[in-house]
Design goal:
Elements lengths: L2 H8 L6 H6 L4 E5 L16 E6 L2 E7 L5 E5 L13 E2 L4 E2 L6 E2 L5 E3 L12 H5 L7 E4 L2 E4 L15 H4 L5 E8 L3 H8 L40 H7 L4 E7 L2 E9 L4 E10 L3 E5 L4 E11 L2 E10 L6 H9 L2 E2 L4 E2 L11 H6 L10 H10 L17 H18 L10 H4 L8 E6 L3 H15 L12
Length: 459
Amino acid sequence: MRAAQNERITRIGPGTACGQLMRRYWQPVALVDEFDPALDPRMALRAVKAVRILGQDLVLFRDAAGRYGLLDRDCPHRGADLSFARHEGDGLRCPFHGWKFDVAGRCLETPAEPPVERPGSALAARVRQRSYPLAVHAGIVFGWFGPEDEAPPPFPALDCFAAPASHSFAFKGLWQCNWLQAFEVGIDPAHASYLHRFFVDASLDDAYGRQFRGASAGDIGGERWPMTRVMREFAQPQITVEPQPYGMRLTALRRLSETLTHVRVTNAVFPHTFVIPLSETMTITQMHVPVDDTRTYWYALFTSFAEPVDKAAMRDQRLAAISLPDYVPRSGRHDDWGFDAREQASRTYLGMGESDINLHDQWACESMGAIQDRTREHLGKSDVAIIANRRALFAAIDAVEAGQPPPGLAQPAIAACRIGPDTVDGIAPADGWASWWQAAVAARRAAAPWDAALPDAGA
């Protein structure tokens, strides 16, 4: 890859080619949990947050009626920072001169002006701070940052947004790297056999909420195998990529014997979301929203097709590695990501702990540098999904620059169509794995306690 191409697919600030593309998709802005005083005591006094998304500085707040507002952070009067505004229930008031704005960006008052210019005057009526469309789904506040004269597409009809609140849980974390390398780790089926390799398999009784610690669906000679064992002992997957309206379906096959194959089906939802299995009954939908060119928040949505999600357990597991209120990992470059040479020699392939594989991915992404230099890499056959995604990204950027519609969930007809997408991690008959995994996901949907039905598979 040439340096100019790398710049083209990584830079996302206002006016950049990739930034113009990314602004056509709904982006996560904050967790609803971030407004919970139990997790952030500041919210009890003032439900206001400074946020940075796609290289833009914004202020997110919730008014007394429970409505969220997302505004440009610089006051339209003289540019002061509205994240320090007074929260007055019905809006934010800039402390510089008292100008006040509601969740829609309307200027309600300009009190320092002469009487003729006070509420209802021509000045207040013609001033408007830019606000951004918002939607709240599955515990996340989403924003849309496309052109003001364009309407956002319908909110995507994915499983993670169709499930009831009792069966979903959202969390996030900050990585010090560009969004694309953060996303590419999740659409790489080969890395799990190495980066997340454990030399000792943990008890399946303590697998709840932990990636790769549960059992793959199905069995081998009546024995249930932990995902870790499959990944460790069969480390050369056969990877295929199938284009889908929303992005790509990825299939990784690991031949276990003459009669059995391990099949892992995951998905890349364009432009920066992957959907993977956590267990037989739970999926992870993870989005990678650029804060700016060199920082990324990942947002993970856990969706259960069986019992309600134990949110307290899921949150406590993850808070052990994350510092609130900004969801910053406790480990990073400053402490070598917790690297332990003794552990690497005896327990894990990487040497960075067994309880949180997000740390493994964090190291892989951050150790590349703030923006990976792709001019120095050498891709192989196992990188088929990476190659396909980059080609799709270049094509989408070119299309938007040419005035054409962006692909996937930015198109109303695709966004409105109910899709899963489906995932599986299981042990299947070697000659019938395709029908096996489709039957497995159909049975999971049929048994779900919420309406998980999809339109006809041909849709």
